[in-house]
Amino acid sequence: FLGVMPAYSAADDALATKLVTFYEHKKDSSVPSHQATVLLFDPTNGSLKAIMDGSVITAKRTAAVSAIATKLLMPAFAEVLCILGAGVQAYSHYDIFMELFTFKEVRIWNRTKEKAVKFANSVNGPMQVYSSAEEAVTGADVIVTVTMATTPILFGEWVKPGAHINAVGASRPDWRELDDELMRNSILFVDSREAALTESGDVILSGAEIFAELGEVVKGTKPALREKTTVFKSLGMAVEDTVAAKFVYDSWSAGN
Questions:
Q1: What SUPFAM superfamilies does the record tag this protein with (predicted)?
Q2: Secondary structure of residue 34 in the 3-state scheme
């Protein structure tokens, strides 16, 4: 797939588009499944201001949004973090979650165990590798799914009541990471209702009802319900790339 994600934010005086290629690698590859470039424009005249590494921006902004969702939705006393997947998004999520939160235990599972072991050996901090997803998520307070799964790898019967899940993978309408039981018995938050109802297999195929967009919780128009089991379905929005690119550009400009 080749995706084009344009956005303009008047509030941030930012105009950009992200070009992203997505290739489903049948075998483990040294080339990432997602590769991206961000073009940042001057909103006053349309001039191209910068060409930026969109893969880094995508990884960072996606993890940042998950961190916001987690801050708002996770249980009051969250001690155990579980990450399912060991790709680029696993690294970016681990970095920001370790920076913002104080988990006593961090677990990881990946379909290919060697990748999980490599991940655990490369990070600074405690990390326990699990051989099965069920063992990894049992008792976890916060779960992050960042896999290339096309069928469910996380099941409701495994999940601790009151846990919070950030579902980041399965970005196609026929792909799943979470099973029906988990989707239907959790309070569902999304980044965009429109996107979730057209792009997310977890939402579409389960028929789960969307309770709120994350932005509504940030603004205070919808409650967080952190005492419930919550799922944040993240698909990503172009405005996130645009605002992030502007932030990076402004920081770079200030340094020059």
A1: NAD(P)-binding Rossmann-fold domains
A2: strand
| Encoded tokens for 244 | 């992030």
What three-state secondary structure class fits 8?
strand
Structure tokens at 32: 């990432």
Domains of the chain plus CATH, in order, are 2-56+239-255 (3.30.1780.10), 58-237 (3.40.50.720)
Q: How many CA atoms lie within 13 A of 174 on its CB side?
A: 0
Contacts for 215 with CB less than 8 Å, ≥ 6 apart = 191
Q: Identify the CA nearest to 77 among candidates 102, 106, 108.
A: 102
pLDDT tens-place string over residues 49-87: 999 999 999 999 999 999 999 999 999 999 999 999 999
pTM of the full predicted structure? Answer: 0.93
What is the Cα–Cα distance from 170 to 148, expressed in whole angstroms? Answer: 7
Taking residues 192-206, what's their average pLDDT? 97
Q: Please list the residues that pair with 53 across neighbouring strands.
A: 37
Phi/psi for 185 (5° steps) reads -105, 15
Give CA separation, 158 vs 153, 206, 243, in Å. 11, 18, 37
DSSP conformational letter for 83: E
Q: Which helix (H) or strand (E) holds 137?
A: helix 133-137
